[in-house]
Amino acid sequence: MKKLFSFAALIIACVMLLAGCQGGNEPTKPEPVEGGLIFTTGGEQGTYYRFGQVLAGKISEKTSTKLNIVTSGGSQENIQAIQNGSAVIGFAQTDILSYAAEGTRLFDRKADKVTVIAELYKEQVQIITMDPSLRSVSDLKGKNVSIGSAGSGVYFNAIDVLNAYGLTERDINPTYQSFGDSVSALQSGKIDAAFVVAGAPTSAVSGLAATTDIYLIGLDDEHIDKLLASSPHYSKATISKRTYNTASDINTVAVGAVLVASKDASEQDVYNIISGIYENLEAITKVHSKGAELNLRAAAGVTAAPYHPGAARYFAEKGITVPTE
């Protein structure tokens, strides 16, 4: 049953959308800096962009390296921008980074200019619906489902999850929409469910949850294990019921959110970027809740691509060895 859209709920929704539902103070987008490194993130309603604002601001404040943050279409576009030289820093999912390194799926050739700075946090596969009768991925058969922009990372995550349940793209009525467009389509009843792959809480979803009842479709252990066996990029994850005020915790899978850099970026700039993050965790966490998930040991666990020498230098100072080739 939908909640009454009261004036109070409207105020809450506006506040949550402005704050990105991440807690803490609203980050201010850094002013463009002449000569600043281009940092590609994601759409304005996604975690990449909002957390990217926080990181860019702190790095630019605390080090001599300045970053200019820009929106983008997400992981694939960010990797391509680094590969063609139009960006220096960007976000990428671990699975998309693997495809880029291998020259498969989204990429027709290997992205040999992309290196790793650090894995920052996990991005959960969130399947959002307003229909309480949809309880399993199997229930999506024949339904109108947004599976992310065509050819995006979300698209391939959705296909992987559907395949684990014996479904294909042909078994649903797919639409190919961004997070914000998916939420709008859910509200208007044009779709029955939407795949969102981002750090939870995600502002587009939180804004919807503030004004109406939403439900998350979870994955059961049997199908999670099947997915992990075929796609090692994923890991088990849980979305707490407190995240979107759902009735219970939701089991799902996640991929890593990785900060990547051009191999042509200077060693000092990349060192400044990683040190600017991990030497200022408390300040970052006060502004964005994802800061609490940053862990240096976890940051060193990426195997899909080599680490940049500037990042390797910082890890070495902390007694951690990462691959650079």
Key traits:
325 residues; alpha/beta; D-Maltodextrin-Binding Protein, domain 2; 2 domains; disordered N terminus
Please provide a brief summary of the model.
The N and C termini lie far apart (55 Å). Helix content is 38%, strand content 19%.
Account of the 3D structure:
The protein has 325 residues and is of the alpha/beta class. It folds into two domains: 7-120 and 259-317, D-Maltodextrin-Binding Protein, domain 2 (3-Layer(aba) Sandwich); 124-255, Periplasmic binding protein-like II (D-Maltodextrin-Binding Protein, domain 2, 3-Layer(aba) Sandwich). The protein is built from 13 helices and ten strands. It has helices at 7-19, 47-62, 75-84, 94-102, 153-164, 179-188, 203-209, 221-230, 241-244, 267-278, 281-287, 296-299, 309-317; strands at 37-40, 67-70, 89-93, 114-129, 144-146, 173-175, 193-198, 215-216, 235-239, 250-262. The longest helix is centred in the first third of the chain and has 16 residues, at 47-62. The radius of gyration is 19 Å and the shape is globular. It starts with 6 loop residues before the first helix and ends in an 8-residue tail after the last helix. Residues 1-27 have low confidence and may be disordered.
